[in-house]
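Reviewers of the previous submission asked for a worked example of the structure-prediction workflow described in the proposal, so we include one complete record here. The input consisted solely of the amino acid sequence. No template or homolog information was supplied to the procedure at any stage.
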Amino acid sequence: MQITPPDPEVWSGRTDGDTPEHLRWHQRARQGIAHEAAQQTPQNASRGDGQRGADQDTASQTAQTPAVELIGFSCDEGVRRNKGRVGASEGPDALRSALAPLAMHADFGIHDAGTVVVPDRDLEGGQDALGDQIATLLDTGNPVVVLGGGHDTAWGSYLGRTRSDRLKGQRVGVLNLDAHFDLREADEPSSGTPFLQMARADQEAGRTFDYTVLGISEPNNTGILFRTADELGVEHLTDEQCQPRHLEAVLEVVDRLVERVDVIHLSIDLDVLPASVAPGVSAPAGYGVPVETIQAVCHRVARSGKLVLVDVVELLPRLDVDGRTARTAARLITTLAHDVLSTTPTPPTGRAGNTTGERHE
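From that input alone, the workflow returned the following structure tokens.
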């Protein structure tokens, strides 16, 4: 299985200065890439004890700095098996490019572990490799963001969190922002099966499967999927129930999940958004959940102190009009990162909050 290192050229954009008030994601990401490269250079091994000690001190300081850990998953096979529009393999770098110019408003690092590339349609091997990478990243103690890929990415995320020493014995709650349950019964794993796979694996391991979905499109989920969700005790709200006028009820569902679990795995399928906002997905939504609701949910989960793992999936860059989908996804990712890692107070913004300091009258 191939794991490609991060491409510094993807992390590019306008640079206004190098002081904290000028920084953007691409500057911090390139700093992280440069540091990792320096730690791996053969010349380090031949340096004297004093220099090696200095390198170790730098590495220790970097490890202690709060950071977001990024890992990509380049794969089309899960969507292909699910008979969707392929192209999600191009998603990781498109998400990086959309994140690159965004401003940093808190002091945290950005560590990019590269991308797991799935060759020869070996979905299962790719998910296994992704799981190993995620487990290692989770054990740093930092939040991990997985850049998909189809929603089959979520099974790799599951493998990672179940292999993580940090999360051993923790009750994990899964919050899926999605137009689909992805509880499909199928002959082989796909982008439509990951949460049923999770349910069965948890049952075999004696773990509690705690799964909540916000944004379900009733016309796009068959009766058997609703029945499966009921049998598994899945709490869900439809896209109509997730409109901004129902925001308090939506956040109550989120709060219930937060209260009953130790840590949260958040999965964001970009097809939960309206097609006008997210045209570049495998299955564009005819109705969808507005960004206002999704952003408020992200704030709530990130500020709970329990968010450890996020996967962002189903971006199809080649079908993304004006980069709308990637830009929206990047906005959600930076919201989550700032809320989880910020060491400074967030601007006063009312009930849901935002990351820009804009006043909502």
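Residues 6 and 166 are 25 Å apart (CA to CA). We consider this example representative of the routine output the project will generate in years two and three.
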